[in-house]
Amino acid sequence: MNNPWESITTPKVDLSARRIDHKHPLNLYWAKDRLGRYLFVCQLTNECKLPKTFPSLTGIDVTVIADTQQLALNLKSPSDWQLFFALSNDIISATRPLTPSAVVPVIFRRIERWREFLKQDKQKILSERIIKGLIGELVYLQQHIATKYGVAQAIDFWTGPEGSPQDFNIQNTAIEVKCQIGTSTPKVRISSAEQLCAQLEELYLFVVTLGKTEPGSEGAVSLPLLIEKIQSELEKTGETSQLEKFKDILLDIGYVYNDCYLTYSYIIASKSFYQVTEEFPRLLLHNIPSGVDKVTYDLALNSCQPFLIDEPWVTKQ
After folding, report:
1. DSSP alpha helices (H): ranges in 221-275?
2. Residue 274 near residue 280, CB atoms below 8 Å
3. Do 170 and 58 belong together in one domain?
């Protein structure tokens, strides 16, 4: 992540600015004012109607530059530039598929979502356990569900972030996704009894086995890479509402781009699908004694071999 404001000269008056992307439907700029403060500026068209009041963000002012149609986000402390850069890129991506006259509501929805996010006490980066889990879910979303239903529909099937016991609910089927690092004794952590006790007709367990590798290695996957691929597909297809939904899910999880995530780089060693039947090894809800709460256990995958299926169920016609 390079600081785009460092290369901009501080002006004696007004602003110094550099256009961000000539292919974007809006004229967007990184800018500095005469005090050296960092700005993100959106040049709006005359048909754009701004709201009467603007939301206030922690450490960021939202204003209109006097006598212009330029909406400016002004960072109060340059030390917070990485978070400001992430917010700006969120707006850039969310508005890319739009016509200029349609961007204002989207810009202010993104600002409002970030206002809510900045209120929360979030860690700088997610833990490695959460990173691996999220990689597994996005691999399944992009490489399996999206190939049959499209990425926009796949995001609607991603119900785990909404509080569902399983990560994906598709029609009458639930899918729980787990991610493990390849070891001599393969196992996955089941974090609640409900995860392998679905209310739907069918339940599958999808396990991604990862191996650690150097960033940039051939075939390597990382959280930023997977997210970029999904967002790019949503931008290309013009699925603006699903693009915003995807961004909201990531914020709710606590993900904001940081270079640190690039160091968590993996290769996909294998992917396995298990059909969870009555005989599948698991803790059943009705067998848990009254008073026992928050059950967590390790599932030995060697014991699950009889339940392997050759093809993911979503490929069935």
Report:
1. 223-237, 240-253
2. yes
3. no
Nearest to 306 by CA among 279, 269, 271, 270: 279
Average pLDDT, the chain: 91
Domain that residue 186 falls in: 128-315
**Do 165 and 24 belong together in one domain?**
no
In 3D, which of 15, 28, 34 has the Cα closest to residue 71? 28
Same domain, 147 and 179: yes
pLDDT tens string 146-178 = 999 999 999 999 999 999 999 999 988 999 999
Q: What is the enclosing helix (H) or strand (E) of 110?
A: helix 103-119
Tell me if 9 is assigned to some domain.
no
200 phi and psi, to 5 degrees? Answer: -90, 175
Contact status, residue 315 vs residue 170, Cβ threshold 8 Å: no
pLDDT, tens digit, 9 for 90 and up, residues 7-55: 999 999 889 999 999 999 999 999 999 999 999 999 988 878 888 888 8
Query: Are 194 and 163 contacting, i.e. CB atoms less than 8 angstroms apart?
Result: no
Q: Is the pTM of this model over 0.70?
A: yes
How many domains, in total, are found in the chain?
2
Number of H-type helices and E-type strands within the chain: 7, 12
Please list, in sequence order, all residues whose beta carbon lies within 8 angstroms of the beta carbon of residue 248, skipping any fewer than 6 positions away.
Answer: 113
Domain endpoint, select from 81, 97, 119: 119
**What gap in Å lies between CA 208 and CA 104, rounded to an integer?**
40
What band does 317 get if pLDDT is binned at 50, 70 and 90? very low
Token code pair at residue 236: 């290309």
- Which of 68, 101, 119 corresponds to the end of one domain? 119
Beta bridge partners of 19: 29
Is 7 within the bounds of a domain? no
In this structure, the answer to whether residues 190 and 258 fall within a common structural domain is yes
